[in-house]
Amino acid sequence: MNFMANMLLQEPADAVQAAVDAVNADLGILWIIIAAILVFFMQAGFTLVETGFTSAKNAGNIIMKNFMDLAVGSLMFWVVGYSIMYGGETILGGFMRDPSDLAFFSEDDWHNLFFQTVFCATAATIVSGAVAGRFKFSSYLIISAVLTTFIYPVSGSWLWPFDDQAWLNNLGFIDFAGSTIVHAVGGFAALVAAKLVGPRIGKYGPDGKVNAIPGHNLVLGALGVFILWLGWFGFNGGSQLAFGGDDSIAVGSVIINTNLAAALGGIAALFFTWIKYGKPDISMTLNGALAGLVGITAGCGNVDAFGSVAIGLISGIVVVLSIEFIDKKLKIDDPVGAISVHGVCGFLGTVLVGVFATEGGVLYGGGFGQLGVQFLGSISMIAWAIVATFIVLFIVKKTIGIRVSEKEELEGLDAHEHGTTAYNFEVDE
């Protein structure tokens, strides 16, 4: 009798648990789709930031590059990139996944394909701002396609499938939402592109003087930062890849950590520039918030609120120093600070996980093992992005070229590359 009673009680309990699991699974898919839509909207944020921080005569060109990053990325990542990143067995000694399953189309994974597609487009878009005002549109389409088809998927395959074939996953590398996989890879690809194309005309004088070329509309830039800040809640929160029960609590924690780091990044840049320049710098403050967002992206699921504050604070100061160093010492022209925001702070944020992670971090008694893994993983991906981008752009430079003519640059890419203008009235540059 007791056995029969237990069976009767067990069956309803199992049915209830199965129903709860099914609801949580559906909630998880819904959350991933909503998060992906937020990340999709970030493309508008990047467009506004880059447009506002650069010359009015190139606004249309910026729009076209960001638009095509999403369009080309959506196509190429679906056809090839997703298989390289998430496909079957690894090949070439674990270098990448077998891409034989082209044009990935599985109804059980459509939501993940969409989520990863918008991440991929973000990595490509980072290059756009760093080469603004002098890069051929046709050549830009080539590097955008290669980034989304091959460069980004290869480095992503080293961790994000989260299986025993991903070598960085086996080492215990942590990059929760992509400080390195997305941002540092895109940021250091941007460094190579900016170096190879050279600075804008008039940026550096013959005597070594650095001339500021201010953007034409800080309002657009600020609106772009607000949109990116909003979209980042999907970028990081969606990377929990589940919702319901404990996962709901984890998503909330990730979103709070993301918001705190952004706030402290902006505050740190504001006060640092106030002390350094005598006035709080607007563009640096905006970039400080973005730096905090990039910095926290690797560890947003592995640090607490105090770690988030620390990472945001550090990132907000470092981005100011990095922008100045790259501009004044390295003489690499980056109109929007993309290399520093995404490349430098992407690397920094990834490494700082080894310091602030509540499990394994240096400050929490974990020793230096995790710190070493974080450094190795980030440097490996950055090195891959630098080498691959250089090879592609060097070939393009020697064949069809990557830079517009002096006349085209001075008169604006909108007129010469697209035969139009973004504004139908006179705009001071």
UniProtKB/TrEMBL annotation:
Residues passing through the membrane, by range: 29-49, 70-93, 113-133, 140-160, 172-197, 218-235, 255-275, 282-299, 305-326, 338-357, 377-396
Pfam families: Ammonium_transp
Any one Gene Ontology cellular component term annotated for this protein: plasma membrane
GO molecular function annotation: ammonium channel activity
Keyword Membrane: yes
Domain Ammonium transporter AmtB-like: 30-423
Top-level division of the source organism's lineage: Bacteria
Localization of this protein: Cell membrane; Membrane
Entry membrane topology: Multi-pass membrane protein
GO biological process: ammonium homeostasis
Keywords: Ammonia transport, Membrane, Transmembrane, Transmembrane helix, Transport
NCBIfam families the UniProt entry points to: amt (TIGR00836)
PANTHER family assigned to the protein according to its UniProt record, in alphabetical order: AMMONIUM TRANSPORTER, AMMONIUM TRANSPORTER SLL0108-RELATED
UniProt record similarity statement: Belongs to the ammonia transporter channel (TC 1.A.11.2) family.
Name recorded for this polypeptide: Ammonium transporter
